[in-house]
C-alpha cells in the first residue's frame, strides 16, 4: 500500500540556477507527475528587466507498512522522491479508534536523506482489519493504510519432553502477536489417555504466551505420546516419552537380626506402578527364607514386605534380592543365633 504523493515545493534555489534569482521570483506554471514521481514547477526569474524560466524539483512522499500481526511493531517506511535539499519533517499521527499507532511521532529527513523507517506500535485484534494512520507535511495530509492481522498460534513446547508416571511437565503455547480482548483459547489434546491436560488454555488479553501443567500417568511400558495444541486452523503437535516405572531400591529394617524372627523390607519404585501393578520377584540366600513374588499396586511407589529368617547356630551372612523388568536390587543381612 502506498501513500498518495504529497506535492510540496521545496524552498531553495532552483535546479541549475546560478544564484541570480531575485526575491520577487514568482511561479508561472506547475506540472504534476504520477504517483511517486518527481514533480516540476516553472518559475519566471526577473533580473535587471530580463525574464527567464527555470525548473525546480519538488518532493513527493510515499509510505507503507504492508501488514503486521496485532501487538507487534509495524515498520513504517517513509520515502522522499529525491534526497532532501533542506531538512524535511513529516508528522505521523495515530487516529483514534485505530489499532495502530500511539500519539504523534515525527520523522526528520536531514539534507541528503531520502528514506526513513519509523516503528509504530499496533494493538491486538480479534479479526483481520484494515487500519490507517495519518501523515502530514506542511499543510498536506494523507492516510496510510495497512492490514492488522489476528495473532495466531506459532509455537508449542513441552519442558521436559519426557517423564515417568506422577511427573508434572510444563506445556507452553506462544502466539505470533498479542491476544485480543477476552483472550485467545487454545485447545489441548493427547493421543493416549496417559497424559492429563486441561481441555483448553487461554492466552490472556495483551499476552503472547501461556503455560499449563501436564500430568503423566504410569504406562505399562515406555510409550511415546503426542500432545496437540489447536487454535483456529493452526495445529501444532509435540511428542513426549513416558518412561515405564522401574524398581528403584530396597531397604531392610536391620543390618542384623536374630534367627527365627521376622525381617521388614521396603520396595521402592522410581514412579507410581502402572495399571495391573508392578510384579517383583524375591530371592534369598543364607538364613533368609524365600517367598512368592509381590505386586506393587497401581499408583503406589512403595510396598512393605515381611520376610522370615531361619534359626541358626552361628552367625550366617545372608542375601535378599528383588528383581523387576530386568532390574535387580540386593541387600545383605547377618542372621545371628
Any key phrases for this structure?
337 residues, mainly beta, Immunoglobulin-like, 3 domains, five-stranded mixed beta sheet, 28 strands, disordered N terminus
Which parts are unreliable, with pLDDT below 50 for 5 consecutive residues or more? 1-43, 53-57
For the largest sheet, list the strands in their spatial order.
5-11-10-7-8
Which class of the largest domain in CATH terms?
Answer: Mainly Beta
- Tell me the structural class: mainly beta
CATH architecture of the largest domain: Sandwich
Pattern of helices and strands: EEEEEEEEEEEEEEEEEEEEEEEEEEEE
- Please give the oligomerization state of what you see: single chain
Mean pLDDT: 83
Count of spatially separate domains: 3
Number of helices: 0
Commentary on this structure:
With 337 residues, this protein is mainly beta. It has three domains: 65-149, CalX-beta domain (Immunoglobulin-like, Sandwich); 153-243, Sandwich (Immunoglobulin-like); 247-336, Immunoglobulin-like, CATH 2.60.40.10. It is built from no helices and 28 strands. The radius of gyration is 40 Å and the shape is rod-shaped.
